[in-house]
C-alpha cells in the first residue's frame, strides 16, 4: 500500500502510475499536477481541493470518490468513470472527457467551459448551475439528469437531448 506522501513524491518525480490501485486515502489539498494515472482505480479516495491539472487519467475509475472543487483543467479523462462521485464545484475547463461516465454524479456548479464531452454519459446526474459554455456536448443525453440552471451559452447543442420542458 502506497502512502499519501509516497504518492506525492512519485507524482513530483513524474513517475508513470498507470494502473495504480488506491483505496481509503485522503488526498485533499494535494498537488498532483500533471500526474500519470491512466487506467488507475481509486476507491473511497478523497480529492477535495486537490490539484490534478494537466493530468492523464484516461480510462481511470473514480466511482464514488469525493472530488469536490478538484482542479482537472486541461486533463485527459477520456473514457474515465465517475459513477456516483461527489464533484461539486469541480473544474474541468478544457478537459478531454470524451466517453466519460458521470452516471449518478453530483456535479452541481461544476465548470466544463471549453471541455470535450462528446459521448459522455450523464444518467441521473445533478448538474444544477454547471457551466458548459463553449464546450462540446454534441449528442450528449441529459434527459435523466437535473440540468435546471445549467449554462449552455455559446455551445453547439446539435443532437443534444434534454429533459422535457428544458430551456437553455
Strand content: under 5%
Question: How many strands, which pairing sense, and closed or not: the largest β-sheet?
Answer: 2 strands, parallel
Write the CATH architecture name. 3 Solenoid
Shape: elongated
Radius of gyration, CA atoms, in whole angstroms: 15 Å
Structural class: little secondary structure
Number of strands: 2
| Sequence of secondary-structure elements | HEE
**What is the highest CATH level, the class?**
Mainly Beta
Please count the helical segments.
1
What is the average per-residue confidence, as pLDDT, rounded to a whole number? Answer: 95
When the domains are counted, the total is 1
Which stretches of 5+ consecutive residues score pLDDT under 50? none
CATH topology: Pectate Lyase C-like
User: Level of helix content?
Assistant: under 10%
Counting copies of identical and different chains, the oligomeric state is single chain
Distance N to C terminus = 47 Å
CATH homologous superfamily (4th level) name: E3 ubiquitin-protein ligase SopA
Strand order of the largest sheet: 1-2
What does the model show?
The chain has 168 residues and is low in regular secondary structure. 5% of the residues lie in helices and 4% in strands. The chain is built from one helix and two strands. The chain has one helix at residues 4-12, and strands at 21-23, 41-43. It starts with a helix and ends in a 125-residue tail after the last strand.
Amino acid at each position: 500500500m502506497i502512502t499519501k506522501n509516497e504518492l506525492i513524491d512519485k507524482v513530483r518525480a513524474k513517475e508513470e502510475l498507470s494502473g495504480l490501485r488506491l483505496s481509503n486515502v485522503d488526498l485533499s489539498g494535494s498537488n498532483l499536477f500533471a500526474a500519470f494515472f491512466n487506467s488507475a482505480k481509486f476507491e473511497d479516495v478523497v480529492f477535495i481541493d486537490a490539484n490534478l491539472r494537466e493530468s492523464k487519467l484516461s480510462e481511470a475509475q473514480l466511482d464514488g470518490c469525493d472530488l469536490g472543487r478538484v482542479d482537472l483543467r486541461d486533463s485527459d479523462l477520456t473514457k474515465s468513470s465517475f459513477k456516483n462521485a461527489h464533484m461539486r464545484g469541480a473544474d474541468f475547463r478544457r478537459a478531454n472527457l470524451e466517453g466519460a461516465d458521470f452516471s449518478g454524479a453530483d456535479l452541481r456548479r461544476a465548470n466544463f467551459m471549453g471541455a470535450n464531452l462528446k459521448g459522455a454519459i450523464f444518467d441521473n446526474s445533478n448538474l444544477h448551475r454547471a457551466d458548459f459554455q463553449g464546450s462540446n456536448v454534441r449528442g450528449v443525453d441529459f434527459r435523466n439528469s437535473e440540468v435546471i440552471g445549467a449554462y449552455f451559452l455559446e455551445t453547439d447543442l446539435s443532437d443534444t437531448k434534454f429533459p422535457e420542458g428544458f430551456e437553455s
